[in-house]
TrEMBL record:
Residues 55-217 form the Penicillin-binding protein dimerisation domain. It comes from the Bacteria. GO terms for cellular component: plasma membrane. The gene is spoVD_1. It is found in: Membrane. It comes from Sporotomaculum syntrophicum. SUPFAM superfamilies: beta-lactamase/transpeptidase-like, Penicillin binding protein dimerisation domain. InterPro entries: Beta-lactam/transpept (IPR050515), Beta-lactam/transpept-like (IPR012338), PBP_dimer (IPR005311), PBP_dimer_sf (IPR036138), PCN-bd_Tpept (IPR001460). This is beta-lactamase. It catalyses: a beta-lactam + H2O = a substituted beta-amino acid.
Length: 568
């Protein structure tokens, strides 16, 4: 065969392959669009209702479990087109349900509807006896269970409140909205509104009617609980549902206002993230005004800024060790309450104290001295390396708070207070957790990640948010020495109440003095990791208005760590 013939045959072959590929793509589109149009055709000629509280994708934990606690509940569903004596039968229904007849009539004029409450056994019995045509009890999917998890992360829904919001939603993402639709107002519900929003119900029931609203004889009532909506997606988080449940249970018993963050050691994946005070998203739907609710109810304390107190001494210790300014045996002098410019919490003073002891005992004068040696530039350098200027969380685009500005450490008269985590130093609990994770991970800083990706109905990830590559923030040797110091805090220092039998852990207390509290109250911190060898969990506890980091936050760290490890 001549070369020119071979080339022609090869060209013809690839043209056929291309043509076949185009045909297959077109057939796939026809299948999808055909399904869509068939549904729309039925719904245009039907009195139908979605058997879902909200036509939206799920927000799940790392294993696919619903964080909102979605479940099925029986509802009384009414199809007015099937009522043969509408006036009489709606009156009977109103009497059974103890509802206003006119209200039911008004709803019936608008088409099929359901009563948004679970019927009691006696109501079910009365309905069965009444045998009202067009009134049936069907399971309707409810988005929120009695105890939804991580509500500050998942966020809340609310109705489109203005034409401006409506126009913005219509112009973003190509999905259709109506005034009065429920949309994401905060958290992941808000950030992923376009991905979560469904275009058609996956669970629905309907009665085919003609142009005059008369029932078309034959098909009767149609119910579909296995329908597809290829245009809605689920948001898959890194949250571990078991760990999140443990954290929230412990917080509900011990923390009125505060935050807990748990991160998987050796990665930036957030396993739990909870804020108090808490709220239930569904209860907000029935409220006409939220003006009387506490202002902090909707604040995610995990991503809010706070003074870290002595937790910030980790930064100074890392800098001093990395720069060779100190050794564990380096000596400092502590004059207690007479120390200037920052007194020590220890009214007796620590006297002559080693760097290792100063870290374990959280001695303020020693760290003011270290801060003076490092200078503002040195502190800022290592605070930046350890992520205390980075508010990014992969998959969770919370706007950065501009009040965080490490450059303020260099302002006049700020160095001493900054050295003990007061003054202009502000951090979030997520940032503190990532800093401790860097120490537990051999000095590598991992950007926190909250969202793994987006999944379809089958659970397959159709879009993935990969974790960022870690950055070596401090040397492995410095991280190891810091780990030993953090372990000493619990073994012999101010963090003894974080210790648990049989499991070695490491961590640091913090007690930040905040205006507005009673004289003996502080923002109480404890941040650490467990176990010391091959760490699994990095945990940060913040209790606002506590006694101290060692007395208030450390015991909660111990309980959370023990429950996570299963060593209670």
């Amino acid at each position: 065969m001549l070369p020119i013939q071979r080339r022609r045959i090869a060209a013809s072959f690839w043209l056929l392959v291309l043509a076949l590929g185009l045909v297959l793509v077109h057939l796939y589109q026809i299948q999808l669009q055909g399904y869509k149009y068939a549904r729309q055709a039925f719904q245009l000629g039907a009195q139908n209702i979605a058997l879902e509280q909200f036509t939206r994708g799920e927000i799940t934990d790392r294993e696919g479990g619903s964080l909102t606690g979605g479940y099925y509940a029986n509802r009384v569903v009414v199809f007015p087109a099937l009522l043969k004596q509408k006036e009489v039968q709606l009156q009977r229904l109103a009497a059974i349900l103890n509802m206003d007849t006119e209200q039911l009539k008004e709803r019936a004029r608008q088409g099929a509807f359901y009563i948004d409450r679970t019927p009691t056994g006696s109501i079910c019995a009365e309905l069965q006896e009444a045998k009202l045509p067009g009134v049936i009890i069907l399971p309707v999917y409810q988005r929120y269970g009695s105890k939804p998890l991580a509500v500050h992360i998942t966020g809340q829904l609310g109705k489109i409140s203005s034409r401006e919001q409506y126009a913005q939603l219509q112009s973003t993402g190509g999905k259709n909205y109506l005034l009065g639709d429920w949309v994401g107002k905060s958290g992941l519900e808000y950030f992923y509104e376009q991905q979560l929003k469904g275009t058609q119900a996956k669970r629905w029931a309907g009665v085919p009617v003609d142009a005059r609203g008369r029932v078309i004889q034959g098909p009767g009532l149609l119910v579909d609980s296995m329908a597809r909506d290829p245009w809605r997606l689920n948001v898959v988080t890194t949250i571990d549902g078991r760990v999140q449940s443990i954290v929230e249970e412990i917080m509900d018993r011990n923390i009125v206002t505060g935050a807990v963050v748990v991160m998987q050691a050796g990665t930036g994946d957030i396993l739990a993230m909870a804020s108090r005070p808490n709220y239930h998203p569904e209860f907000l739907h029935a409220m006409s005004s939220m003006d009387e609710l506490p202002g902090e109810l909707f604040i995610d304390q995990c991503t809010a800024l706070f003074q870290p107190g002595s937790v910030f001494k980790i930064v100074l210790a890392a800098a001093a060790l990395e720069e060779g300014l100190v050794q564990p045996t380096t000596l400092f002098d502590c004059a207690g309450p007479a120390a200037q410019p920052v007194r020590c919490w220890n009214n007796a003073g620590h006297g002559r104290i080693t760097f290792q002891q100063a870290f374990a005992e959280s001695c303020n004068p020693a760290f003011v001295d270290i801060g003076r040696q490092l200078g503002a530039a040195g502190i800022i350098k290592y605070a930046t390396a350890l992520g205390l200027n980075k508010q990014k969380i992969t998959g969770y685009p919370v706007p950065a708070n501009s009040h965080q500005d490490l450059a303020l450490i260099a302002e006049p008269y700020s160095l001493a207070n900054s050295s003990v985590g007061q003054g202009p130093v502000l951090v979030t609990p997520v940032q503190v957790t990532a800093m401790l994770n860097a120490i537990a991970s051999g000095g590598k800083y991992y950007t926190p990640r909250l969202v793994t990706g987006l999944s379809d109905d089958s659970g397959r990830l159709v879009e993935q948010y990969n974790a960022e590559e870690p950055v070596q923030a401090i040397s492995p040797a410095t991280a190891a020495r810091l780990g030993a110091l953090l372990h000493e805090v619990i073994a012999s220092g101010v963090g003894k109440k974080a210790a648990q039998p049989g499991v070695e852990s490491a961590g640091k207390t913090g007690s930040a003095q905040v205006s507005g509290y009673e004289e003996d109250k502080v923002d109480a911190w404890f941040a650490g990791y467990v176990p010391v060898e091959n760490p699994r969990y990095v945990i940060t506890v913040l209790v606002r208005g506590g006694a101290s980091g060692g007395d208030t936050a450390a015991p909660l760290f111990r309980e959370i760590a023990a429950r996570c490890l299963g060593v209670e």
